[in-house]
Structure formats: structure tokens, C-alpha cells
């Protein structure tokens, strides 16, 4: 089992669910036997939500009847770099899409720059960065101006009966200034929650990127696998046609029974059906390639960007604990709810603010003949004395929500370690199996050729030869599927460790720097001197809300050793 679901997603109110989706090649109904393949899913998550494969020497990938016009990705326009990622807020279209893709590196580079799901996640991360600037702006002053020009008419009945009254136009204006001084930690906690939300979105962006790149790898591997499956099916059909031709000749001279001839015809028609299925599956994989990559496939070369960089399983565990996007998102989510709990607790305390106002108005509501001015300055202290238990209930709810998120950090560690360990063992077993499949194919080819000779001498019958041909087909198909699965396992391992990201896989990609955007905008709401001083004052009683909490689950960092040694990369 490769990677279990962990993909993280967060609503505006910060309620979230999460899961990591295992990467897998597309299913191939024409394969004999069918291997465990899963379609590359979408993240998922609003996310996280979701793979890869093929290598070693193989026959030509795209058969003549299904061939796509060969073309390479256009040469880079500047300094050998791939197109820069599109992340402009105006949402204008990117540069022209290349006609075809021929390498995995080019496919990853194109998806990294143009994939809509990834671009959407980047925009969400940028949006959350501005939330921190909004939270910081709460420490600064607020100045409000208003003006009015009003018509007033009054009519009053007198004791004698007739109405008397007046009417007219009058104007006025006022300015109101408010500056918070102390909020018992409310504003500081809100600031920390906004910071953690920004960090959460950036971690979720990494999870989404891993899912997008995983889908690209899965689509790439699926096209290669299914093109090879078509080649295998055609070669098998050619063998069966030759066998039928020879058997027809032998039947004509009474050297073969009608039953044996019908057996050959049966296998031939089965081979034709398998070829049709393989061609249909290849077409499906090509459509999914266009969906995930953004360009059609050409003559795809073997993937060469999925190198495993760990010498041991323990090294992979250690790297993932520090660099996994899933773990980072879980920790950021815990910091969000912890800051929200502190903000609710701060509602028990008072607020202190300085307020001032200036009013310029008419003495009469009917004209502007006589004017008045009024200036008020005051220090206002507000304290809620009784709220029927509302603050207590909100505080307890926020604290329990934080407890839930704290436990999810432990869960993220467990799930990440399981994903790392499972992918490692699966990769090792698949690499070992590839060696055995190669030996089996060599033996099966020899057995089939020998059977053809023995059939002519009468030592073996037609069914024996057909069975050996079927065994050879099964082995070649299984080897082809296992090659794909081996690459999928590589991608799963890289994704679990936090390495399945465009710039970490392909040299020359201009990386999108989410942290740099935060640094550019985080102080957009600051008022010089006032914001830093008051932010520090308000956070005095809140403690360190940026510190990561310790794990509470004894099994969170427990791990089993590798099942078998890791063979060298094929």
C-alpha cells in the first residue's frame, strides 16, 4: 500500500479536513493479468486532493496506428529556464501551450506553470497573507469623517388651534478618532491566528502541488505503459497469426486435428480483442495526459527525474518529519485554534482605548447663521460584567477545538510515517520483482521457441504451444505493469517526504516563492511605531503562540524497519 489519504483543506472559518492521496497509474483493462492500479485522483481538497511510472529498455512506446505526431517542448526563451509560473492576480492567460510533450521534466514544468488547480491554491495562499496585514491594522488608529446637509421642517399645534412651525436647511461635519491601547490579548491573539492561517495555506499549497505533480507523473507513466501494452498485444497477435498459418498448413495435410485448429483460432480472436482493449485504454490515458499536463503526449522518453535521495528508510523518516507539507499543515492548524482559544479567553478582560471627536455644526436645524464647535477627548475602559455564560462556553469550545487539532498533529506524524514506510517497502519489492520478471521472460521465450520445434516433431501438441505463448504474454504484460508501479512507488515516497515539487525535481523551473509574497505584504497594515509597540503590549499575557507543541502520542514517532533491502534503481 502506497500512501494513505491525508490531504488538508481549510474553509474560511478554518474548519478543515485532510488527506494524502496515493499516486497510481491509470487502470488498464487490457493487461493480463491486471495489476493494482488506481486512477490518479483529483485532490483533492479543496486540496492535499492526489501519480506515476515506467523505465528500463523498452520497445517503441506509441504504435503506428495510435501514434501521436512527435514534437518536443519549445526551447526556453531565456537562459535555459522553463516558463515562469503564472500567478498574476489579473488572471491573464499564460503563453501558448506547446503542441506536444516528450519528457517528464517538460510535463512537470508545464503543469507547474499553468495547472489551474495549482494556480488556484497559490491565489488562496496569497489571499491568506493579506489576512495577517488586516489583523495588524487593528492595532492602529481609526479616523472617521462625516458631513451632512439636512432639510428640517417642524409644525406644532398651539393651544389656540392654528399650527406654527419652521423649516430650512442646515449643515454639519465631524471627525472621530479611536485608538485601541490595551485589549487583554484579543488583538494579539487575532494576529497570531492570522499568521498561522497564512502558514497553513502555504503548507496546503505544498500538498496541492504534490498532488498536481503526482497526477502529471501518473498520466505520463500511464501513457507509456499503455503504449507498451499495445505493442505487446500486437506482437502477441503476430505470433498467433503465424501459429494459425502454420496450423492451417498442417491441417491441410492431416497433421493436425480440427480441434487443435479451433484452439488456435480461439486464442487468435482473444488476442485481437485484447489489442482493441489496449488501444482503447491508450486513448483514454492520452486524454487524461492532456487533462493533467495541459498538452498532448508525443513520443515519451523514460522518466529520469524521480530519483530517490535517501540511503535508508530512517533517513526518509527524519527528512519527512521536518519537510512534509502534511505535517507542516497540521502544526499550523493547531496554532490557529490555539490562538483562537486565547482570543476567546481574552474576552474576560477589559479594553482600553483613546477616543476623540471634533464636531462643527449649526446651532439651528433650520439655517447656518450661527455655528458651534465641539471637541471631546476621552479614555474609555470597557468591561463586560455579565453575559449569561456566553464567554465561558465560547472559551471551552475553542479549547476543545484546539485539543482536536493537537491530536491531529500526532495523526499526521503517524500517517506520514506509514506512507513513507509503505512506499519504501513497496518500491523495494517491485524492484526485486522486476529482476525476477526479466529472468522469467527470458526463460519463457526460450520455452516457447523450443515448443515450436517440439510441436513439429510431435512431442508437444498445439495446446501446449498456445499455453506457452499465453505465459509469455502474461509475463511481458506483468513486467510492463510492474515497471509502471515501480515509478508510482517512487513518486509516492517522494510525495510523502515532501519532495514531489516542481523545482525539486526539474532543474530550470522558476520557483514560485509563497514566503516571499508574505514578506512583501505582511506589514501593509502597520502604522510606524504604533503597531509594533501596541502589538507587543497586547501579546504580553498570551505566551508564545508560535511555538510548536510537543507530540503526545507515543506511537507518533514509532516505526518498523524496512521489510527487505532496497535494490538499486533499474
| CATH fold label of one domain | Outer membrane efflux proteins (OEP)
| Shape-level CATH architecture of one domain | Up-down Bundle
Radius of gyration: 35 Å
* Percent range for β-strand residues: 5-15%
Please trace the helix and strand order, writing H or E for each element: EEHHEEHHHHEEHHHHH
SS-derived structural category: alpha+beta
CATH superfamily of one domain: Outer membrane efflux proteins (OEP)
Specify the biggest β-sheet. Answer: 4 strands, antiparallel
| Overall mean pLDDT | 84
- Note the overall shape: elongated
Q: Strand arrangement, largest sheet?
A: 3-4-5-6
Question: What proportion of the residues is helical, as a percent range?
Answer: 40-55%
CATH class of one domain: Mainly Alpha
Strand segment count: 6
Distance between the termini: 21 Å
Separate helix tally: 11
Low-confidence stretches: 1-21, 27-90
